[in-house]
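re: that chain from earlier
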Amino acid sequence: MMNRLAGFGIIMALLAGVPSIVIVESVQAQTVQDRKAEAERLSQQGIKLYQASRYQEAIQVFESALGIYRDIKDHKGEAASLVRLGATYRSLGQPQRTIEYYQQSLAVQKQIGDRTGEARSLNNLGDAYDSLGQYQKAIDYYQQSLSI
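^ sequence. v structure.
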């Protein structure tokens, strides 16, 4: 789809005498903005499904949003989607999946320097390990969270 739009933009630019690079960049920017808006819409839909205890549906929607955020390299959106997936798996009583998603979120937050998000993910990991009865590991994560 983007290739068609870019091709159309180049043809129009040549006909109108506008530099094609300007048109292509504009089309790409609109596409990224549109995709981000779609990811945000999906995130809100997933939150509503989660709140309605429709966890399996919420997971599918959050995964769709996550894929878009990754495609457009929106790391904050990616981290938020990972947290939401972790929380949803926690509600389903699947602590191992919860931990996987929280660890992925923590890695993204470290990468982008989101210290507040990092602290939240560490706290979430503490909660997950606490629910497994792995209290020392939980304490370690809680202490790391507090140190931020």
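The CA atoms of residues 52 and 58 lie 9 Å apart.
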